[in-house]
Amino acid sequence: MQVAKESSFRMDSSEAATKLETTYERVRLLASGNAVVVFTISSCCMCHVVKQLLFGLGVGPTIIELDQDKAGREMHAVLYQLAGDGQQPVPAVFVGGKFLGGIETVMACHINGTLGAWHRVRSKKDKVTGRNMYGVFWRFA
C-alpha cells in the first residue's frame, strides 16, 4: 500500500487565497448571471422551503445544487462567509446579483409583506433570435 506524502495535501496560504478568490468570482458570476439564484443542497429541507416559496410566487429561480457541483464545498465556504454571524450558508438567495439572505431573511420578508411583487419587464431584442427578451426585477414594498 502506498501512502501519499502529507505535503501533497497541503496548500500554502497564497494557493488557498487564490482558490478562494477564484471560487468567490464563480459564485459572483453565477449569482449575477440570472435574475434570481438560489444556492442549495439537495437534501436540505430549508432549501426546499425557499424553492417552493419562490416557485409559489411565480418565480423560476436558477437553482445551484452545491452537492451536485464539483466545486460545491468551496462555494459553500464562500457562502458561509457571506452569510456571517453564524447564519446557515444555505439556502443562499441572490436577487439581481445581490445577496438577499437565507431562509430567515426570505421568510421574514414574506411574512411582513416586503417580499415584493415580481414583474416581467420587456427589454431589448435578442440579436441572435430577434425575439424580445424579458427580465424579472425585484421590488420591495
TrEMBL record:
Keyword Cytoplasm: yes
InterPro entries: GlrX-like_pln_2 (IPR011905), Glutaredoxin (IPR002109), Glutaredoxin_subgr (IPR014025), Thioredoxin-like_sf (IPR036249)
Record has Cytoplasm as a keyword: yes
Cross-referenced PROSITE patterns: GLUTAREDOXIN_2 (PS51354)
Domain Glutaredoxin, first and last residues per copy: 36-99
Entry keywords, A to Z: Cytoplasm, Redox-active center
Gene3D superfamilies in the record: Glutaredoxin (3.40.30.10)
Family annotation (PANTHER family): GLUTAREDOXIN (PTHR10168)
Protein name: Glutaredoxin domain-containing protein
UniProt organism field: Nyssa sinensis
